[in-house]
Amino acid sequence: MRKFIFALTVLFTLPLLTGGVAHAATTDVAIGMQVRPLLYNETLQPNQIKKGFIDVSNPSKQTVTLDTSVQLFTQIDDQGSLKFYDADYVKTALVPDLKEFDLGPREAVRLYFTVNSSKLPDGDVLAGIFVTNKTTPHPLAITPAVRVGTLLIFQNGKPGPRNTAITDFNLPFFQFSNDIHGSVSIKNMADSNTQSGFFADVTLAVSPWGSSVKKQSPLITSGRTRQMDFDVPSDQIGFYKLTVTTGTATAYKWVFIVTGIWRTLIFTILSAIVILGLAIWFIIRRRRKHKK
């Protein structure tokens, strides 16, 4: 079975001293670095050295000097906020081909890197490769460091724990819309000390008659719970059961739905009833007047 390596792109702007989130830049010309995302659909084989790249561009009007770095990451809350931290093994396993380089105005560079699977632990490896501009003196202000990078979710050999639980299933009982909508919260049951991260496969099925769709949750790391909003295509009227399944976890709720063309039909029927009722009332009222 084919396994995966996902790479997602994330943009972080970090003040040089505080490490908090900010917006670039305070100089005359804003410094804004950009990266392109990578997506790998192959797994790392034993003792494999694989090469990848990220495209880095400088849309500003001034030359910037950039440093590269590599860190691991994990989620620190159920909203998906990330914490980055150092580890020696990821620095030796994930190596950019440039440590420091200049990037001129409106220029772009393809930054290559190699991944050595033998230097990574088996299972899920959550890492990031970043480029950060060096701050430069300015007579009026200090230019903050702008850090951009690509998040890499490696499945190296056997995947990490994939045990999930459904902690919340929100589904309004009455649905009068184009489809059935709601949300489900999924927890990664792996111990928080275990490096595990994946996009849970989620199946949503309407019964006794209806559609079945498959979706992926947001990234869920060890011990975290993520909420996923969903929409299920529907063209039905009546009481139905919506079942959500992820891994071995299952939950269901009953719902009364008026979806798709049935919304138009119901509106048409109700309008016809109202018009007919008004017509009958008008005729009866007119006849009573003639009798008087």
SSE inventory with pairings:
Elements: E1 5-13, E2 34-35, E3 49-57, E4 64-75, E5 82-85, H1 88-93, E6 94-96, E7 100-103, E8 108-116, E9 123-133, E10 146-156, E11 164-170, E12 174-177, E13 179-188, E14 197-207, E15 212-221, E16 225-233, E17 237-246, E18 249-259, H2 261-291
Parallel strand pairs: 12-18
Antiparallel strand pairs: 1-10, 2-3, 3-8, 4-5, 4-7, 4-9, 6-8, 9-10, 11-13, 13-16, 14-15, 14-17, 17-18
**What amount of the residues lies in strands?**
over 45%
What Rg do the Cα atoms give? 28 Å
Average of pLDDT:
84
Helical content (DSSP H or I, runs of 4+):
10-25%
Query: What's the helix count?
Result: 2
Query: What structural class do you assign from the helix and strand content?
Result: mainly beta
Shape: elongated
Terminal CA distance reads 87 Å
Q: Largest beta sheet, briefly?
A: 6 strands, antiparallel
Per DSSP E runs of 2 or more residues, the count of β-strands stands at 18
Helix and strand run: EEEEEHEEEEEEEEEEEEEH
* Residue runs with pLDDT of under 50 for 5 or more positions: 1-30
Describe the structure.
By secondary structure, this protein is mainly β. It contains two helices and 18 strands. A hairpin with a 2-residue loop joins strand 17 (237-246) and strand 18 (249-259). The longest helix has 31 residues, at 261-291. It is elongated.
